[in-house]
Protein: short-chain-enoyl-CoA hydratase
Amino acid sequence: MEWNTLFLEKEGNIALLTINRPKALNALNPEVLTELGQAVDVITADDEIFVVILKGAGEKAFVAGADITAMKDMTALESRAFGILGQEVFKKLEYMPKPVIAAINGFALGGGCELAMACDIRVATEKSKFGQPEVGLGVTPGFAGTQRLPRLVGKGRAKELLYTADMISAADAHRIGLVNHVVAEDQLLEFCKSMAKRIATKGQIAVRLCKAAVDQGLEMDVDKSMAFEADIFALCFATSDQKEGMTAFVEKRKPNFIGK
Ligand code: CAA
Structure:
């Protein structure tokens, strides 16, 4: 499938999805959001893809936010529809069964920080900058930043970032748990690919069930989430991958998972 604002490449079982509007620092307009939703559907349906790396084109930005030029003259109703589009596409990405690693090559601001937070794992470079600058534009975040940020870094830190609109360094983002790793700029893709490859060698049903357990379990009360974990743990024992994984351990060899 061809898109105007994205490109999708495959390297073995890893997909590289690039948001490609470098002149606007990959800002998210309705077209990017719509195409991103389509790309998630394509990736979900492609059995060869196990892990996704999401990045921004160019040297400067992952994504510098929702497109301010596109939003500037929106009515309240239009902005509501735009916000809901962003929320729904990000939720689709978050709930996609395959793990997504955000390779954050520069600015991740506003909608860009919100997009990174909808990914499973975030890797930044020493140059990356994070923030929710929206109150400086007279608005709140609109793609679930007010919800994912406190869940990720805690209420107090989230409120400080939201109220001040401060831009923070990758080192500070790492310190507060907003990113998993900070690496040298020229190492970013290799680091993400190496992590993606390690994930891709594991039992993919189990990986996907871990993702569901964390994302869905955190939205449940603890008794329900424990019951959910017990169910998915049991479900693994109905797969060939469980038999293979445990047999390989006992036979002291590498497992050959088939994703069934
Ligand atoms: N929307 C639209 N265009 C953007 C953009 C955005 N969010 N961010 C950058 N651009 C454009 C600039 O307008 C500029 O375009 P021109 O060359 O045509 O003038 C181009 O990208 C390069 O940007 P700068 O010249 O500004 O680059 P810089 O290095 O001087 O500054 C920056 C980089 C600090 C990221 C600055 O561009 C900036 O502050 N961008 C806006 C960040 C922001 O406020 N994001 C939040 C948006 S609101 C939001 O996301 C709401 C939501 O939750 C739904």
Remarks:
- The mean pLDDT is 97.
- The domain at 6-200 is CATH 3.90.226.10 (2-enoyl-CoA Hydratase; Chain A, domain 1).
- The two ends are 27 Å apart (CA to CA).
